[in-house]
Structure formats: structure tokens, C-alpha cells
């Protein structure tokens, strides 16, 4: 029987649910360490494999390059703390929970990426992961001296080189290079600490070594969410965890099978790559209670704000959007605008299969970003998750609940015990490093 891996995604105060920040059930201290430490303790109690923090490197702009609507409405990305700093707080109060940081390959030099992630990995005893992103917006490029975001092919070319260089730096110290031999007066064995190989790459070479020894888990775990053809190729080559978006089990099945097949072709064991669809569970003590909770989430969304947010995402002026027009032509006309192949695919799939208008599309985007949204008692939601695990659609899930932290509490106190009773989730962590725990079910 397949056990599920559980990962939590957070980007406080915005969640995948647009009205999280204004909900009275949402914690108000999301700019304070207390939010992160309580979150970490809660997820570890729920035996989650990992928490990871999303990130972007600019306040999102609308089609006119303005940031006013993002700021006024608390749009997604209006606030992002540096993930490594938030995760350091969590590391200090947890012992087994994995810690994933989103870091872009497009703007940072490999040396600084390798250094900060390996520092987190050492301080946490081998629990760090890198969510590798290539960034997607011109606004992010303009914060780094560029006028526009490089095209997808160029971003992935660079990402391949950056990841290789980061790994070379992480592996500079052999596992036993740090000797601490007081009698023999040897701190570290110089013969076992190496500079990074020259690889004829186009990015500036990072010669190394890092002034940080080898990680307790050998190196931080690699994860990514790119889903264009090039993104899949990148995942099959590098990723150990793939974070997938989309609301269709069939699409997840196809996508997971394609990734596993590509792994085989590259000589990789497909079991070394975990495919985790995002879910936004809405739990209740009865079916009616869960539906009532969903209804109250829906009622709190503002239709005008949802339309503005959709316009921002698709680089369209909201006044040019006809809310009652069909959504599919709009998505097709703006393909490429979001910079995320997976996100556009799931948006298009939902609009096509459900024949959505632009108003409905905006609403769905604001509610759950087109992800799987199981609604019901813990038993009913667990049934749905078991089906996904057993039908080859998932190796586990990225839980991205609507409200911080109450929705996570519902998962930890309701869904987690249900999955444990069914033998679908660990009762205890077996290992102390993230990579070992991810491999153990
Ligand atoms: C579910 C999901 C979550 C993502 N989270 C982030 C993020 O936090 N920060 C970011 O810069 N990019 C994020 N991305 C963008 C991807 O990591 C990737 O860089 C982008 O999708 C381009 O690759 P693709 O065209 O191959 O999909 C996310 C994408 C998806 C589908």
C-alpha cells in the first residue's frame, strides 16, 4: 500500500485563496516569527514531510506596470519575506520537518544559492530543500537590472547550469572531510575538500569550495514546479519532488506517467521522483458542515477584485474583460503571459471542461487557483486522496489550505489521523533527514 508524502505550501498572508488575509479566522502575526514557529510545530505534529515557502522577487504589476491594485487588494505576492529567514525560525523549533525554500535560478549567482541553502541544511541537521524556480515576470527582471524576463528556453538553459554549479559546490567537501581531530591537530583534511570542476558553462564560474562541509543528507533535496515541455525535461533530470498544479486526476496521471517514463529514459529510477499534486481540502465534521465552510469561503470573495487579479495574471486591463464572455479565447490569446506552463494548462483545462465565463474563471482562480479541492469529512477526503494514490495520479500531496492556520489545524487534527488509521501516513518519523524520510514509505 502506498503511503502519502505530505508537503505544506505557504506564502503568508496570501494563500491560494485570495481572501485569506482578511478572514477573521486567519492569524494576524504573519510578519512575526511566532507565525512560523507555530506553523512548524503544527506541521511536525501532523507528521508532514516538509513545509515550503513560495517566493517572488517583485510586487506583481498590472498590465500598465502599476502595483496599486496588488497593494490595495492584498493580491498574491504583495508580501514575500525571504524564505530562508522564515525557515530558519521553523528549523529552530522542529526536529524532523523538511524546510523548502523557493529560490530563483535566473537572478542569483550559484555561490550565494548554494551557500544559503547549505547553511539552512546544516543548521537543521539535513532537512533543507530547494524549490527551483526560473521566475516569470518582467517586474522581477527589473529588480535585477534587466528590462524583461528572459524567454523560457534561456531561463531553463541558465537553470541547468546554475543547478549543476550549485551541486558541484555542495559536493566540494567529501563526507568525512571535517575531521575535528584534536589529538592529531587536524581540523579538516585539505585533501578531501575540492574546488568545483570547470564545465564550460556560460554563467560565471564559482570555483569554490564553500566554507561549509557536506550536508548530513548529502545535499539539499531538489524540487520544482515547471510543467512546460522544457520544465518536464528539467524535472526529469534534476527534481526529486515535483509540485504539480491542476484540478484533473486524469491530467495528473498522464503527467506523472510522462515524467516517470522520461526518468527511465535518462537512466533514473522513477521512484526517485515524487509527484505531488496541490490540494486545497475543505474539511468539516459532516458533509453539510464542510459545504457550509466552502460556501463561507466563496461568499467572502470579491468578484471585482477577482477580475482585477485575473487581469493582472493574464496581462489584460480589467476594463477590457467582458465578465460574461467565454474564458477559453481569453486564455488562448494570452498564452505565455503567466510564465508558467503548468498553471496555464490547468486554467485552460478547467475553462474548457466546465465551459467557464471570464467571471467564473476569475472566481475559480481566486478560490483555489484551479487545484484539486476535496470537500467533506476527513473520511470522505481521505477516500478521494487514496483514489489518487492508487490510480497513479500522485505520490502524495502539496497541501495549500485556504486559511492560516485554521485550515492546517483541520488537516492535522482531522485528515491526518484518518490517513494514519488507514496506513496511508506515517505515525512517526523514521529518520532525521528530509531525503531519508521522503524515501521511507
Ligand atoms: C504550482 C506552482 C507553483 C509555483 N510557485 C512558484 C513560486 O513560488 N515562485 C516562482 O517564482 N515561481 C513559481 N512557479 C513557477 C515555476 O516554478 C516555473 O518557474 C514556471 O512555471 C516556468 O516553468 P514552466 O513554463 O516549465 O511551467 C510555480 C509554478 C507552479 C505550477
- Per the CATH scheme, the topology name is TIM Barrel
Element string (H = helix, E = strand): EHEHHEHEHHEEEHEHEEHHHHHEHEHH
Provide the CATH architecture. Alpha-Beta Barrel
Count of all domains: 1
User: Biggest sheet, open or closed, and with what strands and sense?
Assistant: 8 strands, parallel, barrel
Q: Helical percent range? A: 40-55%
Bound molecules: flavin mononucleotide
Shape: globular
Mean pLDDT across residues: 95
Stretches where pLDDT is under 50 for at least 5 consecutive residues are: none
Largest beta sheet: what is the strand line-up? 1-2-3-4-7-8-9-12
CATH superfamily: Luciferase-like domain
Radius of gyration: 22 Å
- CATH class equals Alpha Beta
N- and C-termini, Cα separation: 9 Å
Q: How would you classify the quaternary structure? A: single chain
Task: List how many beta strands DSSP finds.
Answer: 12
Q: How many alpha or pi helices?
A: 16
Q: How much strand content do the residues show?
A: 5-15%
State the secondary-structure class.
alpha/beta
